[in-house]
Write a structure and sequence with these properties.
Number of helices: 3
Pfam families: ABM (PF03992)
Order of helices and strands: EHEEHHE
Shape: globular
Keywords: Monooxygenase, Oxidoreductase
Largest sheet: 4 strands, antiparallel
Structural class: alpha+beta
CATH architecture: 2-Layer Sandwich
Number of domains: 1
GO molecular function, one term: monooxygenase activity
Strand content: 25-35%
Protein name: Antibiotic biosynthesis monooxygenase
InterPro entries: ABM_dom, AI-2_Isomerase_LsrG, Dimeric_a/b-barrel
Helix content: 25-40%
C-alpha cells in the first residue's frame, strides 16, 4: 500500500516543516509494517513537500496513524501548513528497487 502526501508550508515556516518531517523518519523507522518513508522537497518551490510512504497493508498504515509521534506531528502542522495536506492512497502495481 502506497500513501503520498503533498503539503505546503506557510511563508516563513519552510524550515520548521522540513525539520518536523525529517525528524519523523527515525521515528517511523521503528514501526513494524512500514517499508518506505521518504521526505522530498520541490526543486521549483521550497514551500512544497512530498511524503512517499509504503506499508505492508492497511493495518500497518492504521498503526502508523495511531502512534504518538504521528499525532504529535499532525497537531503541530496546523500552525505551519498553508492549507490541508493532499493525501492519496494507491495500490503498487510495479516497482524498481535497486
Amino acid at each position: 500500500m502506497i500513501v503520498v502526501a503533498k503539503m505546503r508550508a506557510k511563508e516563513g515556516s519552510e524550515e520548521k516543516l522540513k525539520d518536523a518531517l525529517v525528524d519523523m523518519v527515525s521515528k517511523v523507522n521503528e514501526e513494524e509494517g512500514t517499508l518506505l518513508y521518504t521526505i522530498s522537497r520541490s526543486q521549483s518551490d521550497p514551500k512544497e513537500f512530498l511524503i512517499s510512504e509504503k506499508y505492508v497493508d492497511m493495518d500497518a498504515f492504521v498503526h502508523h496513524t495511531s502512534t504518538p509521534h504521528f499525532k504529535e506531528l499532525s497537531a503541530s502542522l496546523a500552525s505551519i501548513l498553508d492549507g490541508a495536506p493532499e493525501v492519496g492512497m494507491y495500490d503498487e502495481l510495479a516497482a524498481l528497487d535497486k
